Amino acid sequence: MLSWLGYGNTGAVVKGLNDVPLELRPATEITHPAFQVMVGSGTTLLLVALWALIFVWRKRRVPDGKWLLRAILISGPLGFIAIEAGWVLTELGRQPFIIYNVMRTADAVTTAPGLVIYLVTFVALYLLLAGMVVWFLRRMAGEPAAREEGSSLATA
């Protein structure tokens, strides 16, 4: 089945990790757990979303169950965790190549001068943006929420 998926031919030979020379193998002690974290996070997010969907479908109202709300709260960072684990999997899983059997990572490093200026500018800009977000959120947290006359949190 894998030969058909990979090559479109059921008679094709698919190399396993044991067939790859040791110096060309990715670091499986890092990539395998990263894959598991990525899949586990995604599966958990899917299950919590299904739980919320079933709650809304059955009760016809916004979820307010204690356990469901806790699960939603805890699963908040899981999307970011899944993205980061996927990034680790992608970047470390392709090592030592940038392009498989064409260019190695060591050959792709640039020697162009002046890149430090761009790195410092990029980091400074994002630190400034992060500071502005923290300032704005703290400012919003200190103000009472504006409510319109006759408005209610409950929906029909």
Give your account of this protein's structure.
This protein is mainly alpha-helical and 156 residues long. The chain has a domain at 24-95. Helix content is 58%, strand content 3%. The chain has five helices and two strands. It has helices at 2-7, 28-59, 66-74, 78-93, 115-142, and strands at residues 97-99, 103-104. Strands 1-2 form a two-stranded antiparallel sheet. A hairpin with a 3-residue loop joins strand 1 (97-99) and strand 2.
Structure summarized in a few sentences:
By secondary structure, this protein is mainly alpha-helical. 58% of the residues lie in helices and 3% in strands.
The main pleated sheet reads as:
2 strands, antiparallel
Instruction: Note the overall shape.
Output: flat
Mean pLDDT: 90
Task: Count every helix, treating DSSP H or I runs of 4 or more residues as helices.
Answer: 5
Strand order of the largest sheet: 1-2
Gyration radius from CA atoms, angstroms? 24 Å
Termini Cα gap: 52 Å
In N-to-C order, the SSE pattern is HHHHEEH
Helical content stands at 55-70%
Secondary-structure class = mainly alpha
How many runs of DSSP E, i.e. beta strands? Answer: 2
Strand coverage percent: under 5%
Oligomer: single chain
Low-confidence residue ranges: none
Key traits:
two-stranded antiparallel sheet; 5 helices; flat; 58% helix; 156 residues; mainly alpha; 2 strands
Reconstruct the topology from this structure.
Blueprint (H helix, E strand, L loop, with lengths): L1 H6 L20 H32 L6 H9 L3 H16 L3 E3 L3 E2 L10 H28 L14
Antiparallel strand pairs: 1-2
